[in-house]
C-alpha cells in the first residue's frame, strides 16, 4: 500500500465526524494487505512501531521540497524509521538529518505533513483505537462488540486486524482470555464529585485510588508473570510481587491491581519513587531492599478454571475476597442504595479519609457492571481533588501536524520573590482549536525572539492550569514539575504580578474556584 493512501485517510479523519472517520478507516482496511496492517494502524494513531526515533527540530527544519507524485510505500516508511531508530554514536545528528531529509524528499506535501507528525509525536487527528475498531468491524462484516472483545483479549488492535482481514469473522475465535497472556486493563472516566458519580452509577463500590503502578498478575502453577498497563512484562523487576502471588491459595488466576510503596508511617511514597523502582533493571535485589513494593488488588479476571470477565463486579469481588487476604485488597465502601443519604454520606467520608491517608482520590465502580477491558467504561468513575495554578506563559513552541503554523506547547512559569519566573514545565493539552488560534495571535504580539522552534515572549499572559500533582525534577529551577498539566482558560483579568508564586506551587496549589 502506498503511504499516500494512509496520509489521505489521516487528513480526512482529522476533519471528520465520528461516522465519517469510521467509513474512511473501513475503506482503508478493505484496501490494505493484512501484512501492512501492523504499520497502517500505528501510523494513523501517531505511534511508529519503532517508538521514539530521536529526531529533533534540527533534522526537520528547512525540509526538502515535496515530491510531485506519490511513490513511497508504507513499508518504505517503515524501513526509513527503522534506520533512524538505529542511528547512534558520533555524527548521529548529521546522519539523522540526512535520513529524514531523504525520506521527506521522496514524500508528497500531504505525506510530508503526516511524516512530520509521526517524527515529532504530534499526530492528533482523532484516529483513536475505538474508532479503528468500528472501522475494522465495518470492513470485515464483524460485530463491533466481538472486535472490541478480541482486541481486549489480544492486548492490541493489530493482531486482531491482521487475523480478521486475512480470514474474516471466524478469526475472532482465536482470541480468548488465557492465563499468561495479558489483556488491556479497564480504565475509568472522571466525575466531579462522589455524589455525581453515585448518581450516574447507582449501586456502587467506592475504592481508594492509589498513585502506584498498575499491574496485572498471572499465575499458572509455579509460573508467575507480572505485566504493566501497557502490557510490558516486568516480572523480573518485582520479586516481592512474584512471592506474594505464590502465597495465595489459587493455582491459576489473573488479578488486577497496583503496586505501591509505604513510608515508615504507613503513608504512600511518591509515584516518582515507585516508577523509578519499577523501571530499575540493575541490581533488582538491592532496589527491592531499599524500596519494597506492596501489591494491592482490586479485581479478579480469572480464578481456577473460570473466566470472570462477564460477571458483575459484586461477584468478581466475592471471588477476589475468597482468594486474596484483606491486607492485599483495596480498601472500599459500598453504596447499595443511592437514595440512602447515610450511605452517600459514608461514601463522602470515605473519600475524605482516603485523601487524609495520602492517596490521590477514589474510584467508584458500578456493582452490576462486567469488566470492560481496554476501555474507559462508564461504570468506573474516578474522583480526585483538582489543583489549579495561575501561571505565566514564558514561551511557546511551534506545532506540527494539524497544529502546524500554531503556537502550541506552552512553557509555564511561577513568580519568584525577586520578580523573575521559575519554569515548571510545558503543556499542549486542553486547548481547543479556537484557543490555539487565539494564543498564536496573542503570543505573537508578545514575542521577543523566534528561533524557528521556540518563540520567547514577554512574561505578561496568565493562564489557568489544572494539574494532578507535583513531582521532583532536576530539570526545572524550582526542583519540581507539574504532573498532567492542562490548560483550563486564559486569565486576561490578571496581571503577571498576580500569578501564583513558587511558594504557592510548593504548597500544593489551590482548589479550583
Describe the structure.
This protein has 513 residues and is α+β, with helices and mostly antiparallel strands. The chain is built from 18 helices and 19 strands. Strands 11, 12, 13, 14, 15, 16 and 19 form a seven-stranded antiparallel β-sheet that branches. A five-stranded mixed β-sheet has the order 1-10-9-2-8, with helices on one face. The chain is globular, with a radius of gyration of 25 Å. The mean pLDDT is 90.
Give the N-terminus to C-terminus distance in angstroms. 52 Å
Rg, alpha carbons: 25 Å
The biggest sheet, with number of strands, parallel, antiparallel or mixed sense and barrel status, is: 7 strands, antiparallel
Number of helices: 18
Shape: globular
Low-confidence stretches: none
Q: In percent, how much strand structure appears in the residues?
A: 15-25%
Provide mean pLDDT, rounded: 90
Give the structural class: alpha+beta
Indicate the percent of residues in helices: 25-40%
- Tally of strands: 19
Concise structural overview:
With 513 residues, this protein is α+β, with helices and mostly antiparallel strands. It has helices at 3-14, 18-31, 37-45, 57-60, 74-86, 92-105, 109-120, 129-140, 144-154, 157-167, 194-201, 239-247, 271-279, 284-290, 313-323, 341-356, 433-446, 502-506, and strands spanning 187-190, 204-209, 213-220, 223-228, 252-260, 294-303, 306-307, 332-335, 361-366, 376-383, 387-398, 407-415, 421-427, 447-450, 454-457, 462-467, 469-472, 480-483, 486-490. It contains 18 helices and 19 strands.
